[in-house]
Specification:
Blueprint (H helix, E strand, L loop, with lengths): L4 E5 L14 E5 H12 L5 H8 L3 H13 L19 E9 L4 H9 L4 E6 L6 E7 L2 H13 L3 E8 L13
Antiparallel strand pairs: 1-2, 3-5, 3-6, 4-5
Helix pairs in contact: 2-3
Length: 172
């Protein structure tokens, strides 16, 4: 049986490339099986993973260590219900930034409390921010704060009414 191998370019700014070898991580079928299990249960012991996958604990340990070292696995986190923690509002905000200062603004916005994601996008706007808030007052302070930031020309905020799906675990 031929094993499928994927090359993932780990250089900043690049996600996938079949180009040059340096800076790339090779992901084979065994790595994908390990990643699928980690996405399902990041708390599973390496011994349990090995048993589930029919591999030796040493193989699993070395592969997980390599995936961590090469930043394929960036970390482990629990998936929590934000509403139970009191974050009842989710907002998606579009921003327009002037004078070529987009990256600087996005980095500053990413540091703000409640910000879950900051995206640099194509189209008529420059960036999209996804953030969670406990109440309308927090959302109001956030939105007004964005508008006081230098180089933010416009912010258009959309309040999420219903979350149909919110899961960033991708199929491997």
């Amino acid at each position: 049986m031929v094993s499928a191998v994927e090359r993932v370019d780990r250089r900043p700014g690049n996600r996938r490339s079949e180009g040059e070898i340096s800076g790339q991580t090779t992901i084979d079928d065994t790595d994908k099986r390990i990643l699928r299990h980690l996405l399902h249960d990041g708390r599973a012991s390496l011994r349990h993973l090995a048993t589930e996958l029919g591999l030796s604990p040493t193989t699993v340990a070395s592969r997980v260590a390599r995936l961590e070292k090469e930043r394929v696995v960036k970390g482990y986190a629990g998936i929590v219900d934000s509403q139970i923690l009191g974050y009842d509002l989710t907002a998606v905000t579009e921003i327009l930034v002037s004078k070529g200062k987009l990256l600087e603004m996005e980095k500053e916005i990413a540091k703000l409390p409640g910000v879950c994601a900051v995206y640099d996008v194509t189209g008529e706007i420059d960036g999209i921010i996804v953030a969670k808030f406990r109440d309308r007052e927090e959302l109001s302070r956030f939105t007004k704060g964005l508008l006081t930031m230098p180089f933010v020309e416009r912010a258009i905020t959309h309040v999420v009414l219903t979350t149909v799906k919110e899961d960033f675990r991708l199929p491997v």
